[in-house]
Specification:
Blueprint: H1 2-14, E1 18-27, E2 30-40, E3 45-49, H2 56-63, E4 71-76, E5 79-80, H3 85-94, E6 96-99, H4 111-122, H5 127-140, H6 157-168, E7 175-179, H7 187-204, E8 207-211, H8 215-219, E9 224-229, E10 232-237, H9 239-242, H10 248-255, H11 257-276
Parallel strand pairs: 3-8, 3-9, 6-7, 7-8
Antiparallel strand pairs: 1-2, 1-4, 4-5, 9-10
Helix pairs in contact: 4-5, 4-6, 5-6, 10-11
Bound molecules: adenosine-5'-triphosphate (ATP).
Length: about 280
């Protein structure tokens, strides 16, 4: 019995955190995904990229069990997420931290109250322990202690994202799912957010998938890039590898005009920082 438990723990740690295969998602006659497959390796940051409308958000909703696919398999933490029943799904959801576009914080609650909400709902921690635990998440997300008592409207855009991240971390998730976390942030705040995600991934052993259009996040903030096109994950590899591929969508994305402008900016910044050093 002990060794069976041990083996099952070992299997889980070797398996990908999430495995999607043969996924189809349709809205009426229109299918956004068809025969889509993807595996998220443990402890890595995956950037989910693709043109507008390619189905990044729908894929993240599928992965977080907010949307049941029309066909295909979804395995989370080694379990068949579409067959585990309501209670099983609740247990799996607890292991996922979500940060969707806009932050989606409750505006009538302070930052600390927002973070305490999922803790109240899913744990038996109460009283000052609850406050302390929530405070530890606020600090973990890189917010100053005095932001805990503030309302979302009193925070900058970057702080709202961090507050939403603190809430996503509330239940100590193993998988963090982020939908365009740096959109609307200036480049410095965005770089700070990317660095924080990297730090948390490394120190907490998180697995992260983030939909993004941000070239900095793709190149510097991720280990792997899942490129969505033709209703599936057309390619899954580090950005530098994808930039060498010849499929027309990848050429347009990684070697098109926007990329050339980015490369120019990168080399001028590198020149400036060399000049400064
Ligand atoms: N609830 C829905 N009902 C009908 N169609 C939907 C629904 N949700 C998404 N879609 C459609 O699915 C397609 C993919 O949408 P999705 O939001 O996943 O794209 P995206 O890649 O995240 O785009 P963006 O980069 O612009 O955020 C779009 O054509 C969208 O209109």
């Amino acid at each position: 019995m002990v060794s069976a438990v041990h083996n099952s723990a070992q299997n889980e740690s070797a398996a990908p955190v999430a495995r999607l295969s043969g996924i189809r998602n349709c809205f009426g006659e229109e299918c956004v995904h068809d025969d889509l497959s993807l595996e998220l390796p443990r402890g890595r940051i995956t950037a989910l990229v693709g043109g507008s409308g390619s189905g990044k958000t729908v894929l993240l909703r599928t992965l977080s069990m907010l949307r049941r696919p029309d066909a295909g398999q979804l395995e989370l933490f080694g379990k068949d997420a579409l067959a585990v029943g309501e209670r099983g799904q609740r247990d799996l959801r607890r292991r996922i931290g979500l940060l969707f576009q806009g932050g989606a914080l409750f505006t009538a609650l302070t930052v600390l109250e927002n973070v305490m909400l999922p803790m109240r709902e899913h744990t038996s921690v109460r009283g000052h322990w609850l406050e302390e635990l929530a405070m530890s998440k606020v600090l973990l997300a890189g917010l100053p202690a005095d932001s805990a008592g503030k309302y979302p409207a009193e925070l900058s855009g970057g702080m709202v994202k961090r507050a939403a991240l603190a809430r996503a971390l509330a239940l100590d998730p193993s998988l963090l799912i982020l939908d365009e976390p740096t959109s609307g942030l200036d480049p410095i705040a965005a770089a700070g957010f990317d660095a924080l995600i990297r730090e948390l991934t490394d120190s907490l052993g998180l697995t992260v998938i983030q939909a993004t259009h941000d070239l900095d996040s793709i190149w510097r903030g991720s280990d792997l890039v899942a490129f969505l096109a033709r209703k599936r994950v057309l390619a899954f590899a580090p950005a530098a590898e994808l930039a060498q591929r010849e499929e027309q969508e990848l050429v347009a994305y990684f070697r098109g005009e926007r990329s050339a402008e980015y490369a120019k900016l990168e080399s001028s910044q590198a020149g400036t920082s060399r000049g400064n050093s």
